[in-house]
Amino acid sequence: KILLLSLAPIGGSPLCHNFQGGWESLLALIAVLSMTLGNLVAMTQKNLKRLLAYSSIAHAGYILVGVVAATRMGIASVFYYLAIYAFTNLGAFGVIATVAAKTGGDDLSDFSGIGKRSPLLSFFMVIFILSLAGFPPLEGFFGKFYLFLSAVGRDAERDGLMWLVVAGVANSAISLYYYLKILKQMYIIEPTNAEPLRASPSMMVALALSALVVVGLGVYPSPILSLLNNLLSYLPFGS
């Protein structure tokens, strides 16, 4: 509200067009730095909790794209992305916590072969990881799609945002490296311990509900987007 209503007159241009600098150019720069540095540092991590923590920095950069777009669709996409990211991240950390409790660690090596040790738990992790990576038809893909689409629409009206979309797409491609590395560790690398790995019933129910939301909001995002657009109808911006 502060940025889009109170500070709208000094938003400026994301590329300082006609030397009109403002909070949009500042947030656009922060978005690119967040995406790039978060992904590059995440690529070097061997601990999964730290890996997801640094990837969260990259996701914060994606979210800022919708804020910089400064349209009703952009802000609706921000809230949609926040909602889906919450369920996706909670699910992923739930799997990590379960594996850590059974193996004594949460490094990448502790996930070796859990696809064989716990097929259902691994299946949930696949959903969460592919959603974070932005694979369709999961909600992570549509979250990024609507964020970038809002920037493309804004670029058609006022120049200066297409470069931010290109940076977002490029960083999404970079993130595939470490997300797919997790899946490789789970399914390709042989386990050092063949003992079955079981989670508690309550944890499995929580993971199943999170996975259901991740898939459901990805396959059918229209209701929540329509609701968000109606809730944000007070914004004096274009769609």
Give the arrangement of secondary structure elements:
Layout: H1 2-6, H2 23-42, H3 48-69, H4 72-103, H5 114-117, H6 119-133, H7 139-157, H8 162-187, H9 201-219, H10 222-231
Helix pairs in contact: 2-3, 2-8, 3-4, 3-7, 3-8, 4-6, 4-7, 4-9, 4-10, 6-8, 6-9, 7-8, 7-9
**Averaged pLDDT, please?**
86
Written as H for each helix and E for each strand, in order along the chain, the element string is: HHHHHHHHHH
Termini separation comes to 16 Å
How would a textbook summarize the main sheet?
none
Structural class: mainly alpha
Instruction: Kindly state the percentage of residues in helix.
Output: over 70%
List the uncertain runs: none
Shape: elongated
Number of helices: 10
In what range is the share of β-strand residues?
Answer: under 5%
Question: How would you classify the quaternary structure?
Answer: single chain
Query: Whole-number radius of gyration?
Result: 19 Å
Query: What's the count of strands?
Result: 0
Structural description of this entry:
The structure is a single chain. With 239 residues, this protein is mainly alpha-helical. Helix content is 72%, strand content 0%. The chain is built from 10 helices and no strands. α4 packs antiparallel against α9 and α6 runs antiparallel to α8. The longest helix is centred in the middle third of the chain and has 32 residues. The mean pLDDT is 86.
Labels describing this entry:
mainly alpha; 239 residues; elongated
Outline:
The chain is mainly alpha-helical and 239 residues long. It has helices at 2-6, 23-42, 48-69, 72-103, 114-117, 119-133, 139-157, 162-187, 201-219, 222-231.
